Amino acid sequence: SRLITFLMTFFPLKTGGKDRRSGLILTIPLCLEQTSMDELSVTLDYLLSIPSEKCKARGFTVIVDGRKSQWNVVKTVVLMLQNVVPAEVSLVCVVKPDEFWDKKVTHFCFWKEKDRLGFEVILVSANKLTRYIEPCQLTEDFGGTLTYDHMDWLNKRLVFEKFTKESTSLLDELALINNGSDKGTQQEKERSIDLNFLPSVDPETVLQTGHELLSELQQRRFNGSDGGVSWSPMDDELLAQPQVMKLLDSLREQYTRYQEVCRQRSKRTQLEEIQQKVMQVVNWLEGPGSEQLRTQWGIGDSIRASQALQQKHEEIESQHSEWFAVYVELNQQIAALLNAGDEEDLVELKALQQQLSDVCYRQASQLEFRQNLLQAALEFHSVAQDLSQQLDGLLGMLCVDVAPADGASIQQTLKLLEEKLKSVDLGLQGLREKGQSLLDQISNQASWAYGKDVTIENKENVDHIQGVMEDMQLRKQRCEDMVDVRRLKMLQMVQLFKCEEDAAQAVEWLSELLDALLKTHIRLGDDAQETKVLLEKHRKFVDVAQSTYDYGRQLLQATVVLCQSLRCTSRSSGDTLPRLNRVWKQFTVTSEERVHRLETAVAFHSSAEKILQECPEQPEAFSETEQFDEIEAVGKSLLDRLTVPVVYPDGSEQYFGSPSDMASAAEHIREKMKLVSLKKQQLRQPEAATPES
């Protein structure tokens, strides 16, 4: 503890700095308080024991910081170095205070005593210490740049010393335990572990401490200091790494042997307990357990009977499960001993394991066979009951007449009927599969009979199973015949309602086409070419409407035929046909008006464009004014038609587009008519100028 206390205020042997000969630097800071030379000597001895011999051969540079001390203390320390490390010290730098000691006090000349001391001593101020040592190898106290944390070094050194002490002591204890186990007699090996087998410290803790210390030492070789300055590992840390690694290797080796000794003792103790438990399991399974299975053979003739037999079997399985749990535990213990056992124990352990496994597997197979048989019987009776209920439901549905409400309800009823029939088919198929599986298991039941004759009981079970399957087959066949008749009628109903719905849809489509014709087909084109394109698109549009109308007529005709077949009157055919004809007549009138307007627009644009494109140097081409008059007449006629509504046969009227749309189309026609009029005036001017000339 005194050494640790002194180290807390004493710079260690290596701060990472080196002199110009690559020797290590030792710093001895002195203070105003009295310095114990004995403690200083012990500390120096300890610090000098850290470096390797190779480092010591390069010598040391000792810095004695006397700035806060007295001259006589400094001189005593320097003389003490002669007795402690005379051979290793090559240079001693005494850092003097700013106010130098009295010359009378310092009359002792160190340089004259060099031969007697064995090393050179110089007096130097702190700011001139860099003449002898590079600044990068000095700490900040002496104006250098070397980063050094004394408390960090001390803490890690304490950890290293503690680990070294504990690991060395633990190695001795483990070696004693392991060697004693190797030399012990057979009787000693059979004894349980006593207190001598427990080390004084936890090996895992010591190993963890060593790994953490080694990791810290290795990281310091690559990581920089906190200040960001590159840090060189100190030689004592480099020396500590192989020591820690060697101790860790030895600890791991001895600890592994110690663990093996403990495992061997524990295994031999378990062996006798395992033998006793194995015989208990075998005796019960071959005795009371087997007798319980011999008394259970029936499968029941209903769900309730099968469930009662299952409940009884679960009670038997519950008793067996307790012994099977013991078997699992014993098997794991035996397997663990086999993996870590000696050759002398392998034969006995394998024999116990084989005997235990044979008995348990045989009994488990018998339990599983009985459980599967009862489960198959319960599933068979459950499927038979479900199928019987499905057949009753299907028959009840077939006995009720179907009132035609609408196509969706008829379709839903037909779908439900088909689903029920399909469910019955699947149910009967599942019943056959379950019955055949149960029959196969019953035929194999004799092999587990322990010599008991079960032929009579098996025959009753077989007759019951076959009788249930035959009865269900007959009931299902009767229902199928009734379903075929009902399906045909319902399909005709579905087709009837579908035709009526599609005919009504055709009327809606035709109405939508008429609405689109009135609201969106309003453009007349900006020129003859565009107007012709619009005329062609309109004809295709009319073809679509014609197809829709024809489709609706065909559907209504099919509706009449289906009504005659079903001997019923259609709900909507009397209303749908007049609606279809009315919308078609309105569409026809509107389409004809649209065609007339487009054809008039084509004639107007063609004539106007021809006049406007003629060359003005050929006035003879326009000698007659009839062409201009004709264009003007066609334009006015087209403008008049834009303001006239479409009149339907019932007297109702409809306009194309909105008033703004018609105004826009009319404005374009007026502009082109103005261009034609302007062209006409241009052609008349040369004619007027000729008589004047």
UniProtKB/TrEMBL annotation:
InterPro entries xrefs: CRAL-TRIO_dom, Spectrin_SESTD1
Signal peptide location: none
Keywords from the UniProt entry: Repeat
Claim: ATP-binding is one of the keywords in the record: no
Domain CRAL-TRIO: 1-150
UniProt KW Amino-acid biosynthesis keyword: no
Gene behind the chain: Sestd1
MF annotations from Gene Ontology: phosphatidylinositol-3,4-bisphosphate binding; phosphatidylinositol-3,5-bisphosphate binding; phosphatidylinositol-3-phosphate binding; phosphatidylinositol-4,5-bisphosphate binding; phosphatidylinositol-4-phosphate binding; phosphatidylinositol-5-phosphate binding
Protein name, entry field: SESD1 protein
Family: Belongs to the SOLO family.
